[in-house]
Amino acid sequence: MALSGEQWSISYAGREAVIVEVGGGLRSFTVDGDAYVDGYFEDELCPGGAGQVLAPWPNRLGDGAYEFGGKKYQLPLSEPANRNASHGLVRWLRWQAVDHDPDSVTVECALPAQPGYPFPIVLRTRWSVGPYGLRAVHTAVNLGASPAPFGLGVHPYLKVPGTPIADLTLDLPAKLRLKTDERKLPVGDEPYANASAKIGDTVIDAAFGDLARDADGNIAIALSTGDGRGVTLWADESFPWAQIYTADAFGDERKRRAVAIEPMSCPPDAFRTGRDLVTLAPGEIWSGTWGIKPRR
């Protein structure tokens, strides 16, 4: 079996995506053979969170320790060098396909109650491709008898075929940027200039909030070339935050090869700060939708 497990391919009029069993995430997305995400091989461990679903929290949780409902909890430190619990608990679990059509697949993961997170959650993602590009619809339901803290993010690395990221313009309509410490944990807010600028040699690894929304309530963060080509990540109102990362920590050919644009329902360390943290009541369902739209 491939290291990323079973592979589910979906396609529509030249748009193709592959979803994987391990992590339930996006391994590739192409249009007429051109890649718009920096994916990985099926017999390769997912590098740097590429395309993974991050739940029941995205980003980092300092010391893996938090309080909720008057009780204290301790999670394993998946980022031990910085003493953080990073990117949730479902990245390396097996997801199963519950529905598969030529242009869509729905995958499900039942996260059991466990020490540090004694809240049983069932997650589903419906991945689809169509004239709109790629779309993901996430749901989470609390199967337990008590409220559960919850957050979700996704970690795609976007690219424009044939163009280095240094030559791309990043359109990031945000008014707020989180300041972080050496552990990449938030220590405050700072204004952001709602920028549209060429990336060049700029290093970015930060969370952004107060994102501008269109008439439908969606955010849009775009990478573009000077000739009108590009790619846009959009997300609905369930995602008030986005992490932008220029992939500088990779020590191989993936370094600065794509830009991670990560929609998040809450910022880093939300289990400790409570900022935009979702509290799922027993039986309650959370949902959020985002997508990738190429411009050719």
From TrEMBL:
TM regions (residue ranges): none
Name of this protein: Aldose 1-epimerase
InterPro entries, sorted: Aldose_1/G6P_1-epimerase, Gal_mutarotase_sf_dom, GH-type_carb-bd, YihR-like
Gene Ontology MF term list: carbohydrate binding; isomerase activity
Gene transcribed to yield this protein: galM
Xref: SUPFAM superfamilies: Galactose mutarotase-like
Species the sequence originates in: Actinorhabdospora filicis
Pfam families noted in UniProt: Aldose_epim
GO biological process: carbohydrate metabolic process
